[in-house]
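In response to the reviewer comment on reproducibility (Comment 2.3), we provide here a single inverse folding case reported in full, input and output, so that an independent group could reproduce the run without further information from us. The structure tokens appear first.
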């Protein structure tokens, strides 16, 4: 069976929550946010004002997700999207699931008149870097900083 990628719906909340915890805690080794916080984020994205999420399914089982946020570029004086997350569970990597999720985000960006889509990945996530280059992405000229 092929992979189906579609926007997340309210009925996907539990399955998406499980995928997000696998991504946050198991893959990125970050502290587990409360379920309340994760559900609030999903609820905000279900409104589709600040962003949205896509869910990938294979054989009717959730196998990955992508998160696309909406923002602006001052230097372009235009709206842009940021693909903040693209995650596929380990057993389904390398069979086109990530490509389908990426394309859903890219198509949404183009179909809705955004100037471009950008994204980041960890400096040591070489697999993701190869994937993004294969998808036509180019490294940006900006360094990423954060403060807590």
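Designed residues, in position order:
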């Amino acid at each position: 069976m092929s992979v189906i990628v579609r926007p997340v719906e309210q009925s996907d909340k539990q399955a998406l929550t499980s995928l997000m915890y696998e991504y946050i805690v198991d893959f990125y080794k970050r502290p587990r946010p409360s379920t309340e916080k994760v559900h609030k984020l999903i609820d905000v994205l279900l409104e589709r004002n600040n962003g949205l999420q896509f869910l990938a399914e294979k054989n009717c089982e959730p196998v990955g997700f992508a998160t696309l946020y909406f923002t602006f570029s001052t230097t372009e004086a235009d709206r842009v999207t940021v693909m903040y997350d693209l995650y596929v569970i380990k057993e389904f990597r390398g069979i086109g699931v990530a490509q389908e999720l990426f394309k859903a985000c890219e198509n949404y960006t183009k179909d809705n008149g955004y100037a471009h889509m950008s994204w980041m990945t960890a400096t040591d996530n070489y697999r993701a870097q190869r994937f993004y280059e294969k998808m036509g992405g180019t490294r940006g000229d900006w360094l990423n900083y954060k403060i807590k």
